[in-house]
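Bumping with the actual sequence this time:
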Amino acid sequence: MTAANRANALPILIAASVMMSLAMGMRQCLGLFLPPMTHALALSASDFTFAIAVQNIVWGLVQAPLGAVADRWGLRPVMVLGAMAYVAAMATMTATTGLWTFVLAQTLIGIGIACTGSSLAMTATARAASPERRSVILGIVGAFSSVGTLVLAPALQALLGVWDWRWGAALFVILAMAMVPAAMVSGRVDRLPQPSLQRASATGAIGEALRNRRFVVLCCTHFVCGLQLIFINTHLPNYLALCGQDPMLGATALAIIGGINIAGCLLAGYLGQRYLKNVLLGLTYLGRSAVLMVYFLLPPTPTTTILFAAAMGMMWLGVIPLVSGYVADLFGTRNMATLLGVSFVVHQMGSVIGAWGGGMIFDMFGNYDLAWRFGVCIGIIAGIVQILFGGPSRTPSGARPAPATV
């Protein structure tokens, strides 16, 4: 990459970081609305988590088609329209009067985050970065996905502790508006010169990927990522409230997860440049499961919750640079948004189980025991499968690995 290209890439990388930080940060703080919204609107926990599940279903269903549109006609228009959808979503949430208005808001969030979240932001980053530094830069930009959570979680909880929950939603409207200019700047990546890449239709690219054993394993284990993360995001504040803890503890835990994850993403990007990405992913799933198991076996206290959040933060969104870099290693960046979208379909299936399933289990049994046990068991299985059947992820001299057929 020439000096001129590096100078052009820097604003793109900064804007992609800001856009993804706001998009992911707001989404990961939605669980803080569960207690006040269910109380004010006479909703059940399963009602609230059903709407969150709809968000994740929509995100998963539209991610691949929107990725294909972005690969074909450019990232910029898709990201800008997605940021505008996010603004509309938060405005709708502010005006929520019942379940179906909230479901509509979450539907729009699903569309918005599909355009502004990790898949398209990481595609823009991968195209702006040189191949030899791609994994590290993906880690740096991925680290910013947690800055939003770090700042927003305590600020939102403090606001919710004093004012009506609608003021929190109004704050998110303003933050969503800031995503629009960030999306416009990060979309400049469409103008950067790209290496000569084989052009393939979205259908052809997906067909090639689904014949690749490593990609299929990656998608299947990505299910666990969605399940574990959305379960914690959505239900941890409610779990702590049920155990008699200060409501601010849940927000503090989310903020710590976001803060520590900055280091976790940087470490994942660094290690992904040097070691097998499938092994790193597998170890991440195993590590998350171990931390989840230990935490729920112990009575929750401020100390154990903070330690849990810190340990989970190191493994939180480090999968983003690893998964994104893995897809780029295998197939290049030409159809990267499309293929990341395919993997997200399975990811979001896990998110639905984590959000809605956790709420249903709580409504049925009055606790989360069965939910966390399921999350631990499936995480262990995914980690082992990813390590044993998901590699190798790199070849000598940074060459693109040959496809591994199923």
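The tokens above came from a reply further down the thread. Residues 295 and 307 are 9 Å apart (CA to CA).
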